[in-house]
Design goal:
Layout: E1 3-8, H1 14-23, E2 27-29, H2 37-44, E3 49-52, E4 72-77, H3 80-88, H4 103-112, H5 114-119, E5 122-125, H6 131-142, E6 153-160, E7 171-174, H7 185-188, H8 195-202, H9 205-227, E8 232-239, H10 245-259, E9 263-268
């Protein structure tokens, strides 16, 4: 069986995620008291089970102290501005509502959940996800087959620094040392998924060297993660806008890791964003 703890910030989508998992006929419970986690896992038997444990537990969260009883931890996060907007439309009381429903409450909740954030196996940034997209991401994760012979499932994503850091990432790699196709008029409207942009980026010696060194380092690191029981690794590659260099490098890195026997998923966060300079 697979036991998952879903946690994260108020307004980050825990209720939406749980509703999607309930539709998939998983055993789910919201706001499970920390002390009942082991009993819930035993009651779930051989099937997949999901428990939401978050800041509503108050001081009881300290009982976990990084020990999640063999469960996988999924942490849902979002940008502060998104959380403020969502909380303004919510009728649920905030765990730190005594501090107000704005940034002060969010900051206090982040502090309270810091141990679970550190212990998280997977982080999902829900800032730009629709409810349907979030539910699909969570179902794909919870119901996925265990990682293959390498023991670690890798996600490689691309993003643009000007749109904010990739909150989900375990590793962040900067690809801005590579010449930018944006300044080539014929390539500006294209993306790293187009052959012409791929050829331009890979025409730079630094691109091949970056992919080679990253692949070798990640293969070594993944083995160390597996030794410590970690099953998931998210590597985010960034460039200025997230539409050209980071997309090409992410695709090439994913291909190299697959060739080495890893299970790899690829996501491009900002590839479809329009550039205001165009």
């Amino acid at each position: 069986m697979s036991l998952w703890i879903v946690t994260g910030l108020s307004g980050a989508g825990k209720a939406t995620a749980l509703a999607g998992l309930e539709k998939a006929d998983l055993a789910c419970v919201d706001n499970l008291p920390v002390g009942l986690l082991a009993a819930f896992a035993e009651q779930a038997g051989d099937g997949d089970a999901v428990a939401v444990i978050d800041a509503r537990q108050g001081e009881a969260l300290a009982q976990l102290d990084g020990d999640v009883s063999g469960a996988e931890v999924l942490f849902l996060d979002a940008r502060d501005d998104v959380l403020v907007q969502r909380l303004g439309n919510s009728t649920r009381p905030h765990p730190f509502e005594a501090l107000g429903r704005g940034l002060a409450a969010i900051a206090a909740e982040r502090t309270a959940l810091a141990p679970l954030r550190v212990a998280a196996d997977v982080v999902i940034d829900t800032s730009d996800l629709t409810p349907r997209e979030l539910q699909q991401r969570v179902r794909d994760l919870v119901q996925a087959e265990p990682p293959g012979t390498r023991g670690v499932a890798v996600t490689v994503s691309s993003f643009g620094y000007k749109h904010g850091l990739q909150l989900e990432a375990d590793w962040v790699v900067d690809a801005r040392m590579i010449r930018n196709p944006f300044w080539e008029t014929r390539l500006r409207a294209l993306t790293g998924l187009d052959p012409a942009v791929r050829e331009f980026v890979l025409g730079e010696p630094e691109a091949h060297e970056l992919v080679r060194r990253l692949s070798e380092l990640l293969q070594w690191a993944a083995a160390r993660y597996a030794e410590h029981g970690r099953r998931y690794l998210h590597v985010a590659v960034g460039c200025t806008g997230g539409r050209h260099r980071s997309v090409v490098i992410s695709e090439e890195l994913a291909a190299s890791l697959r060739e080495a026997g890893f299970e790899v998923a690829v996501r491009h966060r900002d590839v479809l964003r329009a550039d205001p300079r165009e």
